[in-house]
Amino acid sequence: MLPPRDPDQRIKARGADTRPAGRYEQQVRTREADDWDIAEDQSLLRTEVTVERPRSIITRNTSPDISFDRSINPYRGCEHGCIYCYARPTHAWLGLSPGLDFETRITAKPDAADLLARELARPSYRPAPIALGTNTDPYQPVEKRLAIMPGILRVLRDWNHPVTLVTRGQTVLRDLDLWAELAARDQASVGVSITTLDADLARTLEPRAPAPATRLRMIRDLSRAGVPVRVMVAPVIPVLTEPEIEAILTAAREAGATTATMIPLRLPHEVAPLFRDWLERHRPGMAAHVMNRVQDMRGGRDNDPRFGHRFRGEGLHAQLAQQRFRLARTRLGYRTGGPALDCSRFGPPPKAGDQLSLF
Questions:
Q1: In Å, what is the CA distance from 212 to each residue of 59, 170, 208, 324?
Q2: Which of 29, 95, 111, 284 is 20–30 Å from 230 (CA)?
């Protein structure tokens, strides 16, 4: 259950509307109207950034559902505020709320580039593509000010290390020269997530993410610079955004995307009640219909965490959506697989005084 909300209070430009306690908390806090001016509450919604100094930056995984075994996340939490974000529950590990805290209390890792260079230099390190943007968006709004990503990309460039990215943040275009340089060596690809082409829906569903038209421009600018771009039709929300599958694929293909993937909506842990609350606030007339369809493709539950199922769903409606996606992808001329990234040139950058190779 989410804490009760004062009906007169309006949270602006945020996806969540409450701060429900994380699943590890022993106490639950509720918000009550006290007749004071809400300006004080509104002032608490400004984004707070805390610096983290980890001892390592590369995270490893062995999930059979995921195509990469290592990733880097320069931030914890994400200011984009997408209400459906599967990463929201990770804020509970910090003792923070997966609701408003996830999008207003961000942790940054400014030493990420130095840590990365140190880890790549270890004699035991073996190269494989590093995935960026797997848990939160590295190009979320705060990145424009903190600029952690350029340092990471320069280290990867200097070491000839392949990298992939998932983003919806337009600040990626600030680093277009670095992405183009890596792509020219067959060492980079970028995925741009598009949930809907409806700007009004996107404004409430993903309140601080770039508008759909901006994301199409990102695809266009990246592809023109020679960077392979994958459009990610994700998440596909039954009833709400599912009718747009073909339209999103068409618009992205025209913008220059060469590959495409689709992932149905996932609602792990605290995300399910947050998403239900969002539906009641913004789409009350279709809330029951949406959740019935979600449960239909998740075995009667809000979420199905089983490997092999969580990224595909099951049942008739999930199969029909996948079939529509595959037919549209083929008709529009998308490739079925992404580019093979080159690991063969990985090695330390030359130092001053080193003799250069003739080849």
A1: 30, 11, 12, 21
A2: 111
DSSP 100-151: HHHHHEEEE-TTHHHHHHHHHTSTT----PEEESSSS-TTSTTHHHH--HHH
> If you average pLDDT over residues 150-167, what whole number do you get?
98
**Structure tokens, 94:** 């910090």
Is pLDDT above 80 for 127?
Answer: yes
Amino acid letter for position 356: L
CA-atom Rg of the chain in angstroms: 21
Pairing mode of beta strands 105-108, 48-51: parallel
Handedness of CA 246, 139, 105, 91 (dihedral sign): positive
Q: Where are the alpha helices (DSSP H) in the chain?
A: 39-43, 100-104, 112-120, 143-146, 149-158, 176-184, 199-205, 212-224, 245-255, 271-282, 287-296, 316-331
Is the pTM higher than 0.85? The answer reads: yes
Residue 29 has pLDDT above 60, yes or no: no
In angstroms, rounded to a whole number, what is the distance separating the alpha carbons of residues 48 and 85?
19
Quick: pLDDT tens for 63-85. 887 888 999 999 999 999 999 99
What average pLDDT does range 286-314 have in this prediction? 90
Give exposure, 304-335, as e/b (b: 16+ Cβ within 10 Å).
beeeeebebbbeebbeebbebbeebbeeeebe
